[in-house]
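Why predict the complex rather than its parts? Because the way molecules touch one another can change local conformation, and only a joint prediction can capture that. The input here totals 528 residues.
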Amino acid sequence: MENSINFDTFYNRELLPLLTEADKLRRQTRAKNRGITLKYIVITAAVILVGFLINRAIYGTWVHDDKANVPLIIMVIAVSGLIFYCRKAIKKNRGSFVGQFKGDIIEKIVRFVDDNLTYNPYKMIPERDFLASKLFRRKPDSYNGDDFVSGTVGKTYIEFSEVHAKYLIQDQDEDGNSRDRWEKLFDGLLFKADFNKHFNGEYFIFTEKPSRPSRLERLINREEDRLKEKIETEDREFNRQFYVYGTDQLEARYILSASFMRRLLDFKQKTDKKIRLSFIGSSIYIAIPYKRNLFEPKYMTSVVDKDDTAEFYYDLRMVIDIVTELDLNTRIWSKQ
Amino acid sequence: MNTTVTVIVTIASLVLLLLIWGVRTSNKLVRRRNQADNAFAGVGAYLKKRYDLIPNLVAAAQEYMGHEKEVLTEVTALRSAAEKPNLTSEEQIALGNKMNGALRSFQVAVENYPQLKADTHIMQLQASLNEVEEQLSAARRTYNSAAMKYNNGVQLFPSNIIAGIAGFRPKSYLDAVDAERVNVDVKNLFNR
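Output of the joint prediction:
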């Protein structure tokens, strides 16, 4: 589909009517949420007023200094409940709009890029794949995501989604009290594809020097060094830009052919991000960090915006094009 | 008296340190040499793997390739030559390089036979051959990398002193053959 028409034509012909409809829904959702907010403000004000009136009727004053002020306590609980339900209702409406937008617009863009791909706005790449990729030393304590794309591009099966992974840290203050703190492990896109060559070991490529367990850590925590040995390739530029580790020097070079290294250098330059790659099982995993939330429609202003829509398109293209960028469809070896 | 003891202790310490350094450097060189030898054995293993594919390839191709039998004859002859016992490393590598050229001619010749191009058995053999070629290229690069590390130890100061005393000799590198410089896309050859 994409080859026959360009994005501008696709935008004007296919997306614009859908975006206009979506914007109508956005305005309706906002109006609905404004109504809900107003309703809850009135109810909350009434509850506060009634609370104080009952308190005054019982204790003869708005707030009694020595008594428990039970009506006020009940009032505070009721107000908290009202705020909670108000927020929940607003969030639900907004979520419903976002879901509909993604189901209509993002799905359409995904199919425009490649008709064989399917899109699910609510699913994510499973946590077991995140762990299997071994791209991160820590295990996440919280893992979620959305915008799951899967399917076959040419001969290569791919899947990717947005992922948010965090881990919990316990801090201790001077008095010895512990406090939980969430630390970011990874925010961005996790991409998995069937690699076009057979291999047995595990290989890692980082753009930043990864942390490795020291001998002491390995002994005390029984933590295995997943990265195994450092691999220096013959490509000086590649060695300058990437840190390569893996199980076997020879097999690493089998994966990292001269042309593949050049392609990776180009891909890194194109993305301009601190990407990580691993080759495990029969798959290639790529983690591309993003600071912003991807594929999210605007809520406060109009969604009929060509630049914003083009951004969705280019973000998707960048990931789906990995197959051609890294030449994963070339199946001239025994793996078909 | 004290001065004499101090001098003796200092000299003894220096000699001891020098000895420790010498042993460590020698061990390092032995380790690197072993790594290079091991990598070279990898090249040999993949050359053998490639030779093992030849009989099947020739058998599958000869019924189609009536006019270009000489290509198959050359490939078969090279394989027989490679099977001779007591070949030196240099001879093995030279034969391997000749085989690269012969196999490239074979792949080009395949072009002239549409039936051969469509044969699934040949396609599988070609895929296996490409795989071995790529592995062979990786093995050569691994060897060259290991040989360079070893040679640096042998030729650079101060480890070259120990290398000279202990008789470590630099290793020669394997040249990348043309077939490895250009990654042959057999699939494209078939699809042309």
